[in-house]
Amino acid sequence: MAMLWPYYSRTPMNALLAHSVRWGIGDEQTRQLLSAYDDGKVFAGQAWDGIFNELREGVTSAPSSERTGISHGNSTLIWICTGIAFRLIDHLGICFDSQRYMGSVTLFDEDTEIRHRLFWSCYFWDKLTSLYLGRSPSLQQSPASPPQRILDDSAEDELWTPYGLTYANGGQYPPTPSHSTSSFIQICRLTVIFNEILIHMYDPTNHNSDTEMHSCLVKEEASLNSWWAELPSFLKMDISDLARYAPPSHIVIQNLLYYCFRILFYRPMLSRRSSPEFGHLEPNPNHLRERVSSATAIIAIFDLYHRTFGESHCMISVAYCVLHQVIIKRPVGWSSAHALARASRINPVIRSALKLVMEAINDLGVERTMPFEPQPVTGTPPSTSTRYPLQSQAFTSWND
């Protein structure tokens, strides 16, 4: 990569290695290799040095700072890093459609394709970070933004195989097309819908009026339903007819996020009371059914994911969706509860969320139904425990 690829940079490579340490350190052979690099901490240090050297010199390449704080679960660090990354892509003009707004630099088709993918990757990550931390999203789509279009779809039919898994009785994960291009396009479309939900229902800086929320409900409910109806069958997980093995993890995450977004979408309609401003915002029984059915779907999908890939492959987005089904459906099953507890040890961000859930239960005087306590991760900095508005709204709705 360093010798042949014009986009190579040591900074994002070190950030990627630092981010990967928490997944690889569970393997004995990998852990021995990492011992020469201070158990992988060297990579994070070099990534930070690279970021600030580039900023100090005023010359930077693709944003890499969003990767450096995630593995430690430090919410303050995550928010600062993502802010740097998003401003860098704006500085580099990546927030604009380079095919319509050409600058003085000649861009080849490969350059344009990379810029489009990078913008929408950051747009997606911005929404998830805002969701995890209870902050307002930073990146917004505009008529000048890059289109949701991938010109190079050569990866669509590449076979996808999970790494480092062995199955009993000699079983193997079946050859499965990745469908990575179509999945990426669909998750971008879904994220645009969720951005509207965040802004008009969960804005932590402004009070969303009942009128605004009702308008969002009408518009985005139709958008969510259309998205699901138009989703290709090979990307859609039918919980009434799930396969023996879970599809590629990015397809699982896409389906889990859809149901998680539906839970968050209907939550304000059940937790807010009617007001003189907009009197017909009484709780709708259908909204509760939608939330419970979404939570049921999350349980079914996660159980399949867990059976296929195990606990050690449970990513933050997966654990976050499971967390919301724990809030909606109780008592939670032992398998999901213990998997979530294990995930909290792998993902410090989830550990902070679980702490908020426990605090909310204690505040409400509700008997604990989750047979676990989140355990701290040894050797990582503590994450910030500040309760942000979106988190407190999303995690304290036990009485609905």
From TrEMBL:
Region ranges (Disordered): 370-400
Matching InterPro entries: Transcr_Regulatory_Elem (IPR051615), XnlR_reg_dom (IPR007219)
Example of a GO biological process term: DNA-templated transcription
Pfam families, alphabetized: Fungal_trans (PF04082)
Domain Xylanolytic transcriptional activator regulatory: 78-154
Keywords: DNA-binding, Metal-binding, Nucleus, Transcription, Transcription regulation, Zinc
Domain of life per record: Eukaryota
Biased composition (Polar residues): 377-400
Identification of the protein by name: Xylanolytic transcriptional activator regulatory domain-containing protein
Species for this entry: Clonostachys chloroleuca
Species lineage: Eukaryota, Fungi, Dikarya, Ascomycota, Pezizomycotina
